[in-house]
């Protein structure tokens, strides 16, 4: 009897501690860590009031760091790129529950390749200069500025970026923008969302650039929750984001906070299904790279190809079937 009461008491204490523990919202700070923290703090404060517990912000430099901190449970809510969210869901730790909507009701973006005016103005012109151009790419975990252009702009034209460009550097949209403006790169990857923000922030610099290529539309970044959070807490977090800036007497003021944070209009409910947008890209890009790897023996190539298709089938199953 005593042991039963002791176990019940310990469980109650653990539940109480979990309820009081800080919730950490993590995101990639495309405009700099200090600026990102300042921009999102009013929303974090509102979230804390809604949840009844402190909400801390964690701004990181890239998607890789965000994924690592999420995996270590240092972040419980993540604004992630689609590719990073896919990794979080695939390892069984994360679950997509919402996605971003930008000012004006925009819920989709396009990947961009930018050049300076006077430089290559089209993708064909860009791909007609092998070993002559310096490319400023997004980090490998980023969907908009890495995966999408790597496959849709380059691989579909039988171009492997590492072999085509004179040099490749990796950075955030801001890093790439500056590299292009300052003449340290000839081509820079970005997204329509990030380029619009940077154009408002640096209008004179943006006026020197042009869009040489843009992709088909993709859904804006998802928000991911850790699956091991208590169900009631997950429900409260999802409700906060679904209502924020859209319902209640404070909605107008909340919309102002969203705009200043990241030119957002709010959030829409979503699910893991959203991530199906990139699974085909991942598979085809990986197969393309495998095909061009002349150092692999035939058996090794076939084994890797089978492994890629097995992973793809597993992902399709996890994310809800054919897209």
Describe this protein with a few key phrases.
five-stranded mixed β-sheet; D-Maltodextrin-Binding Protein, domain 2; globular; six-stranded mixed β-sheet; 14 helices; 13 strands; single chain; alpha/beta; 323 residues
CATH superfamily of the largest domain: Periplasmic binding protein-like II
Indicate the low-confidence ranges by residue numbers.
Answer: 1-19
CATH class wording of the largest domain = Alpha Beta
Largest sheet: 6 strands, mixed
Strand order of the largest sheet: 2-1-3-12-4-13
Task: Count up the helices.
Answer: 14
Extended strand count: 13
**Given the helix and strand composition, which structural class is it?**
alpha/beta
Estimate the mean pLDDT confidence: 88
CATH architecture descriptor of the largest domain? 3-Layer(aba) Sandwich
Helicity level, as a percent range? 40-55%
Q: In angstroms, what is the radius of gyration? A: 22 Å
**Pattern of helices and strands:** HEHEHEHEEEHEHHEHEHHEEEHHEHH
Can you describe what's shown?
This protein has 323 residues and is of the alpha/beta class. It has three domains: 2-106 and 220-271, Periplasmic binding protein-like II (D-Maltodextrin-Binding Protein, domain 2, 3-Layer(aba) Sandwich); 108-218, D-Maltodextrin-Binding Protein, domain 2 (3-Layer(aba) Sandwich); 276-319. Helix content is 50%, strand content 20%. The chain has helices at 2-20, 33-51, 63-71, 82-90, 123-126, 143-154, 161-164, 173-181, 192-201, 203-206, 231-243, 251-262, 276-291, 298-319, and strands at residues 23-28, 55-60, 77-79, 94-102, 108-109, 111-116, 134-137, 167-170, 187-191, 209-214, 218-219, 222-226, 264-269. It is globular and about 55 Å long. The relative contact order is 0.15. The model is unreliable at 1-19 (pLDDT under 50).
